[in-house]
Amino acid sequence: MPEEKTRRAVARDKREGKSASTQAGEFVREEIEHVREGKHGVQNTKQAIAIGLSKARRAGIDVEPGDTASPAVKKKARKDIAKGRKKTAAAKRPAAKRSAGAKKALKTASKKTAKKAVSRTALSKQAKKAASKRTAADRSAAAKKAARTKGPAKRSAAAKKAARTRKQAA
């Protein structure tokens, strides 16, 4: 179950007209916090992101899997999205044994490995790797949309930060 803080952040993103992936990012952030707090472990960065995306889909955010996703991942995403669309309280609960097994697997994962998997450097590497797979036109379109939806105050802050970064790099 997502935390109240996360649900509020997602609702705010939705009101502001942000994309489904931006809304899902809040769930991913929550999951990374959980791993850092030691609530459970993960084997790698991608697993933490996958758990967050799964939570987002089950919360009703239509985040489609990537084009390069495996058939198994696509099937799981379809199931999660379907579950998220069901608004009935009588939605079938997962089997107790299956839930217990999943929780045990996450809890017994190495905490040391988990902390490394969600470190700043690991997340940075993952982001750069994911970005490198996108085309220049795709990245440019995303940047233009971000500039449109950001708002004047945040746009100004982003421009100042970019100037500082360029100055440091020079």
Radius of gyration: 18 Å
Q: What about the largest sheet?
A: none
Shape: globular
**Are there runs of 5+ residues with pLDDT below 50, and where?**
none
* Span between termini: 46 Å
Write the element-wise H/E pattern from the N-terminal end onward: HHHHHHHHH
Number of helices: 9
Strand tally is 0
The SS-based structural class is: mainly alpha
Q: How confident is the prediction overall: mean pLDDT?
A: 88
Helical residues, percent: over 70%
- What is the percentage of strand-forming residues? under 5%
Question: Descriptors for this entry?
Answer:
170 residues, single chain, 9 helices, mainly alpha
Quick structural overview:
The protein has 170 residues and is mainly alpha-helical. The chain is built from 9 helices and no strands.
What does this structure look like?
- This protein is mainly α.
- The chain has helices at 4-15, 20-37, 45-58, 71-85, 96-108, 111-117, 120-132, 136-150, 152-169.
- The longest helix has 18 residues, at 20-37.
Helix/strand layout:
Elements: H1 4-15, H2 20-37, H3 45-58, H4 71-85, H5 96-108, H6 111-117, H7 120-132, H8 136-150, H9 152-169
Helix pairs in contact: 1-2, 2-3, 3-4
